[in-house]
Write a structure and sequence with these properties.
By secondary structure, the chain is an alpha/beta fold. It is built from 6 helices and 7 strands, in the order βαβαββαββαβαα. The longest helix is centred in the first third of the chain and has 14 residues.
Length: about 190
């Protein structure tokens, strides 16, 4: 399958790419490699995990469903999940959920998995990238006060105050932010 060429680092991209995401972080990460989507269309899909669904399978499935839920010829969609073993942590939608996620992540290792799907017409390619993250002790009250957890997978934003309690990252940092830039650029170029 051939996709329109993505701009090199020295030129702006003029491809009519549609970003199927409401995430401002994904838009910023794409801009860092000189890709500006022609349109941003957040998909409206049910993101409820299926019973027994593993985090990697979930991330790939949801990214693919997002890409196919948006009208257009050239679509990029992604979904990021935070996982403790087989458990998919929810997004921080309210303070109680955020506190529960942070308690689970406190002084522990976890995985951040992003599924990325590129669709051109009726053909699509989907990948998943996994990054291992280890947190030290989290001052949960202090972090809750930042409100950075709002809407974030696993109730944290690595690029903000969560950096203070992040002991180790093994793998793609941009994956933890919300889009594995290196792997996404390669996928777009295929």
């Amino acid at each position: 399958m051939t996709f329109p060429k993505v701009a090199s680092s020295s030129a702006r991209n003029s491809v009519s790419l549609i970003l199927a995401s409401a995430s401002p972080r994904r838009l910023q990460l794409l801009a860092s490699i000189n890709i500006t989507p022609a349109h941003i269309i957040p998909p409206n899909i049910d993101e409820t995990p299926h019973k027994g669904e593993l985090p990697l399978d979930y991330a790939k499935r949801v990214a693919t469903e997002k890409a196919h839920a948006v009208e257009g010829d050239f679509i990029l969609a992604a979904d990021t999940v935070v996982a403790l073993g087989r458990r998919i942590l929810p997004k921080g939608e309210d303070e109680a959920t955020a506190r529960e996620c942070l308690k689970l992540l406190n002084n522990r290792r976890h995985k951040v998995i992003t599924g990325v799907c590129v669709r051109k017409g009726d053909k699509s390619m989907t990948i998943a990238v996994t990054t291992l993250v280890q947190f030290g002790l989290i001052d949960i009250d202090v972090y809750i006060a930042t409100k950075e957890w709002d809407g974030k997978a696993g109730a944290y934003a690595i690029q903000g105050a969560a950096a203070e309690f992040t002991k180790m990252i093994r793998g793609s940092y941009t994956n933890v932010v919300g889009l594995p830039v290196h792997e996404t650029a390669k996928l777009l170029r295929k």
